Amino acid sequence: MRKLAFSLLYHILFVLLVLVPAGILAPHAGLAEASVVVLPTNATIDDRSAMFGPHLGDDGLVGQLLIVEAADPGNADGCRPLARRMDSSKSWIMLVERGSCGFVEKVRNMQASGAAAVLVGDPWYDLPITMYATGDTSDVRIPSSFLARSDYHRLHDAALSEPGSNALKIKLVRNEYYELPFLDVLFITILSPMLMMGFIYILYRLRLRQHRLRDLAPADVVNGLPTKTFYHSKYHEDEPAECAICLDDFDDEDELRILPCKHQYHVKCIDRWLTTRKKFCPICKKNVCPSSETTPLLSPQLRSIV
Ligand SMILES: [Zn+2]
Ligand SMILES: [Zn+2]
Asked: What pLDDT is recorded for position 296?
């Protein structure tokens, strides 16, 4: 019954600490965390901000979309700077293709070519990924985002359908809705599992303590066992002359505790044994508690013979 209660409590706590916060926060943890707004039509395309470079400000970033392939044929993937640096009086958001070189390399090349921001489109897969880079990226001063294949093609087609090449105005915006607050992330990833582990540990300690207490003799039972004062003059040869716990010989006026099995020990030795180690006689293993007079180390068959 107690086992069932513990199990029930464990599951309730698991739901409260892990599943409920995860359920509440999951809708806010969508894949897209930023958007590209095609200003003439207000069409909105999801993208994903890179882990390197600055983040978009609250006001977003407005610029002219520049398909790099159109401005510099043969450089669709942006793995080298544009043949001719763009006029920096305008805000250029450059669209390059994924592949051939690292994300940060593309962004650095476009930054050197006068870009205000970079969009990297995936020509093959419809899977949004987060662009990240190893090493020092503090030289990257422009924001960049990743577009999965269908979003990349939508933006690409929108740019091509615009009269006059590279005239499409777009706005990069940060999508507040999708941002997971730091404290929520901290709660789900660290605090919640820690609380669960703490709870499980407390349960484990409690059960361990219960098991230990079951193996010990209560102090009142131990204090109720008879005692006697040892004198060599009254010593019988069939009685033990030493305490089996501390292995010291009994001396005159030593206080001895006599267990129900008639084995005798120093009072301080046997009392500590019974109340902190085991409730059984150290020699014959007989239980000193009156409720069960069993000998735990013997099988039922042997007990019936004894
Ligand atoms: Zn002793
Ligand atoms: Zn005994």
From this structure: 46
Location of structure tokens 């979003």 = 151
Q: Assign residue 188 a region: left if phi > 0, alpha if psi is -120 to 50, beta otherwise?
A: alpha
Distant-in-sequence, close-in-space partners of 234: CB < 8 Å, separation ≥ 6: none
> What's the CA-to-centroid distance between 209 and ligand 2, angstroms?
26
Kindly report the CATH number that applies to the domain delimited by 30-178. Answer: 3.50.30.30
> What b/e string do you get for 234-256 counting C-beta neighbours within 10 Å, with b at 16 or more?
eeeeeeeeebbbeeeebeeebeb
- How far apart, in whole angstroms, are the C-alpha atoms of residue 190 and residue 184? 10
Ligand 1 midpoint to CA 257 (Å): 10
Ligand nearest 268 Cα, by number? 1
Inter-residue contact 200 to 89 (CB < 8 Å): no
Among the four given CATH numbers 3.40.50.300, 1.10.357.10, 3.30.40.10, 3.40.50.10330, the one describing domain 217-305: 3.30.40.10
Contact 113, 82 (CB under 8 A): yes
How far apart are alpha carbons 180 and 109 in whole angstroms?
31
Mean pLDDT over 108-136 rounds to 89
Ion ligand 1: residue ranges with CB closer than 5 A: 243, 245-246, 266, 269
Boundaries of every domain in the chain: 2-25+184-213, 30-178, 217-305
| Mean pLDDT (whole number) for 208-221 | 89
d(CA 51, CA 140): 11
